[in-house]
Design a protein that fits this description.
3 domains, Archaeosine Trna-guanine Transglycosylase, Chain: A, domain 4, about 20% helix, Pseudouridine synthase, RNA binding, 8 helices, tRNA_psdUridine_synth_TruB
């Protein structure tokens, strides 16, 4: 059993819960997820099974797309609807699309973001949410993130001193959308929080392709799970691809250093290149050699 299962993660489960359930359904210990989603968040969660667990890091690096709802008028400890209210301010008048669109557009590009206290970011070997639960406030490092698109996708509901609207954001790995919701509120002059979130795309994978756990359970009962898994080769389609002949494939399986094709001379050290055989099976992940620019070396052999 190997490949990538596209799960439509349900609300109320952590990403680790989903992995644990999938281990039981697939009857294998080798299951890993490709990017943590908070319990209340639903949507695209690719799960790697069997040998595909070796490529988790290459799937987590992809850009992701979310559809989020932000509520303007009060903020919470967790920056989402599950937290306790920490600040409130009634929205005066009504927010209008031109105001909101201007704020959303201002977030596009490379910006700095401070991770929320209730997050899994580690400081001195301890996760931030562990400090938060103990009532300890620690200094959090800012990080650079990239917002490719941030667009209003709904009407603005102004009622009882609160304003709510939905926006779609495509962003880089490590972006906290609930923190974006807070930033949107700050730019509008009000406390805010994220009141709903769904991940609609992770790299090349979209929500329409995903299965619910109910559907997975039916497929397992029919003994057809392997047929629903995306192969390792397909899952790595976003990476630069190099197809080699069988003679060279044997060297790749043994972890040999290879000549870097002229087409890849602009590749930076550390950037992955997926190596495929003539059967379109992904054999290994290579990268430009750190000291010999005309060569490339393996960073992960997938088929032995």
């Amino acid at each position: 059993m190997e490949g990538v299962l596209l799960l439509n993660k349900p609300a109320g489960m952590t990403s680790h819960d989903c992995v644990a359930k999938m281990r039981k359904l697939a009857k294998t210990k080798k299951v890993g997820h490709t990017g943590t989603l908070d319990p209340d968040v639903t949507g695209v969660l690719p799960l790697c099974l069997g040998r595909a667990t070796k490529i988790v890091e290459y799937l987590t690096a992809s850009h992701k797309t979310y559809e989020a709802e932000v509520t303007i008028g009060f903020s919470t400890t967790t920056e989402d609807a599950s937290g306790e209210i920490v600040d409130s301010k009634k929205v005066e008048g009504e927010l209008v699309p031109t105001q909101v669109n201007e704020v959303l557009s201002s977030l596009e590009g490379t910006i700095e973001q401070t991770p929320p206290m209730y997050s899994a970011v580690k400081i001195n070997g301890k996760k931030l949410y562990e400090y938060a639960r103990a009532g300890i406030e620690v200094e959090r490092p800012t990080r650079k993130i990239t917002i490719n698109e941030c667009k209003l996708i709904s009407d603005i509901n102004n009622s009882k001193g609160l304003s709510t609207f939905r926006f779609r954001v495509t962003c880089s790995k490590g972006t906290y959308v609930r923190t974006l919701a807070v930033m949107i509120g700050e730019k509008l002059g009000y406390p805010a929080h994220m009141s709903h979130l769904i991940r609609t795309k992770s790299g090349q994978f979209s929500l329409e392709e995903c299965l619910t756990f109910e559907e997975v359970e039916q497929i397992v009962e029919q003994n057809q799970l392997q047929g629903q898994l995306i192969s390792i080769g397909e899952a790595l389609n976003d990476l630069p691809k190099l197809i080699i002949h069988d003679t060279l494939a044997e060297k790749v399986r043994n972890g040999a250093v290879l000549d870097l094709p002229s087409d890849y001379h602009t590749t930076n050290v550390g950037e992955p290149i997926a190596i495929y055989n003539e059967k379109n099976e992904c054999l290994a992940i290579y990268t430009k050699h750190p000291s010999k620019s005309h060569l490339m070396k393996p960073i992960k052999v997938l088929m032995i």
